[in-house]
Amino acid sequence: MKPIYMDHHATTPMDPEVLDAMMPFLTSDFGNPSSSTHIYGRQARVAVENAREQIAALIGAERSDEIILTSGATESDNLALKGLAFRQTAGKGHFITIATEHKAILDTAEFLKKQGFEVTYARIDSYGVVDLDDLRQQIRKDTLLITIQAANSEIGTLQPIADIARIAHENGIVFHSDAVQALGRMAVDVVKDGIDLLSISAHKIYGPKGVGALYVKKGIRLQPLLHGGGHEHGMRSGTLNVPGIVGLGKAAEIAGRDLATESQRQLQLRERLRHGIESRIELVRLNGHPQQRLVNNLNYSFSFVEGESLMLACRDVALSSGSACTSASLQSSYVLRAIGVAETLAHSSIRFGLGKSNTAAEVDHLLDLLQKQVKRLREMSPLYDMAQEGVDLENYAWSPHDHHNH
Amino acid sequence: MDAWDEYTEKVMEHYENPRNVGTADNANGVGVVGNPACGDVMKLTIRVEDDRIVDAKFKTFGCGAAIATSSMVTEMVIGKTVTEALHISNKAVAEALGGLPKIKMHCSVLAEDALKAAVDDYRKKTGKTDLATK
Predict the structure, then answer these.
(1) B109 lies within 8 A of chain A by CB
(2) Would A15-256 and A259-388 be classified into the same CATH topology?
């Protein structure tokens, strides 16, 4: 039997309604929207434009032609940053972001640094919330863009995006936000929030993988990453992924339609899980903001228990961990480290990502498992014993931090 | 991502039912190796009588593979002389478990290091050194 899925920050299962909407465009209605000379092409074009409107509606965009369709949020993030950077004829400029962004932002920013641009990381607090005063301090005359996510995928922390947008606009700076995790979980409105560029992913909102979008406020021009047939106002060439786009559109429509009920339901499940963990298991620590967080996210460190072994013990629920033992790099989560979580606690962290399919019964089952297995693993943990004996674990003479390199 | 998809049945069996968890009674050798900042710490306690390891117990903070290798190394050393035990390599521990995923081989190194540290501690405490000392 497959485990219960509770890792909805990584991806979500496709909604059957979405697949139904896509099916004709994978079979009979296969036209290229660029073919204006016949019904096949025109039909595909109508479907794509309909999807664009569905996506625009979810994010409160006034015009559907502000939606640039991409292969996913990684491309959208790349297009936002590089697209703005490479429009600078002098090849210079300054970007501001934060250390807990997705790698699609951080690695793109580092790439731009190598190209002669400058990047500053605004300070964040121990919950991962950006320090607005420090953000203001970091602004320079040549600052082109502030890019700060709406919500974090690991710790669920929400950023004050409307305030950030205001600060950006007071200084004539473009504001980009990666809203991949926020969409479908909270209201996002590009007009009210003042967002100029916004990244969207289909597979995080119960749509298909391999498709996403970048909202580009009218008037902002970006240098394309892909040159070719001049699609998407020349900002993103390439024959449109019609079935994927139709799927994204349908997923956006459902996300908007179900937002109020589903976000409320998931919030109740989250609080059930939070209350259960905190009342039934001692020595746990919540990572991320206690209130300003995604309705579907919890991230806990279970002291003295290593994350992978706990996930293994709870393996009839699919979860993820910030422990190094679950990553190919043998590095613990950079997000947890960026908010100052000690390495030991980062290794002990588990991320819970609730979604549409999850029920109260599943949460209760997980709680039973966690309670039993944390106890079992602590009984096996030398750190638990040492802590009970009053040993200062932070300052104990451990082996050097290099035994992984044998 | 599930690293445990690559775990052998033997690894899973030792993870589920680890042998010799705890602290050896009247232990005369203790080895604590690893670093919580790296995600694994193993404490091995041994009871040596007449140069033979008569009991070995472990406590481990670490992934499934770390727990399984800890369990296996205790099984392998009980009944062996100190010299014989020192010849148990990390590879032998991994092999006894039917192999470990490549990325988890460092866990078996931890088990070998803990064994050496426990023997070193025993020798320091008893003032015994033998010909096997490298």
Answers:
(1) yes
(2) no
Copy the structure tokens of residue A200. 């969207």
Contact B33 A379 (CB under 8 A): no
CATH of A259-388, picked from 3.90.1150.10, 3.10.450.350, 3.90.220.20, 3.30.429.10, is 3.90.1150.10
Whether residue B8 lies within 8 A of chain A, CB to CB, comes out as no
Distance from CA of A311 to the nearest CA of B (A): 9
- List chain A residues with CB under 8 Å of B42: 382
Catalytic site residue from A325, A342, A383, A387: A325
ipTM of predicted assembly, 2 dp: 0.91
- How far away is chain B from the Cα of A400, in angstroms, using its nearest Cα? 7
Give the DSSP letter of residue B48: E
Cβ of B34 within 8 Å of Cβ of A399? The answer is yes
Partners of residue A315 in chain B, C-beta under 8 Å: 2, 4
Architecture of domain A15-256: 3-Layer(aba) Sandwich (3.40)
The model carries a pTM of 0.94
Q: Do B4 and A332 touch (CB under 8 A)?
A: no
Asked if B53 contacts B77 with a C-beta cutoff of 8 angstroms, the reply is: yes
Report yes or no: A93 and A144 within 8 Å, Cβ to Cβ. yes
Question: In chain A, where are the structural domains located?
Answer: 15-256, 259-388
> Comparing C-alpha atoms, which of A158, A163, A102, A166 is closest to residue A338?
A102
| Residue B43 contacts A, CB cutoff 8 Å | yes
Cα separations (Å) of A70 from A19, A51, A77? 19, 13, 10
A314 labelled catalytic: no
- Measured between alpha carbons, how far is A176 from A95 in angstroms, rounded to an integer? 11
**Ramachandran angles phi, psi of A68, nearest 5°:** -100, 120
Integer Cα distance of A37 and A54 in angstroms: 26
B53/chain A closest Cα distance in angstroms: 21
Q: Which of A280, A281, A299, A279 is nearest to A289 (CA)?
A: A299
From first to last of its 406 residues, chain A has per-residue pLDDT tens of 789 999 999 999 999 999 999 999 999 999 999 999 999 999 999 999 999 999 999 999 999 999 999 999 999 999 999 999 999 989 999 999 999 999 999 999 999 999 999 999 999 999 999 999 999 999 999 999 999 999 999 999 999 999 999 999 999 999 999 999 999 999 999 999 999 999 999 999 999 999 999 999 999 999 999 999 999 999 999 999 999 999 999 999 999 999 999 999 999 999 999 999 999 999 999 999 999 999 999 999 999 999 999 999 999 999 999 887 766 666 789 999 999 999 889 999 999 999 999 999 999 999 999 999 999 999 999 999 999 999 988 888 888 765 554 3
Q: Does B13 contact A at CB distance below 8 Å?
A: no
**Among A307, A385, A404, beta carbon nearest to B106:** A404
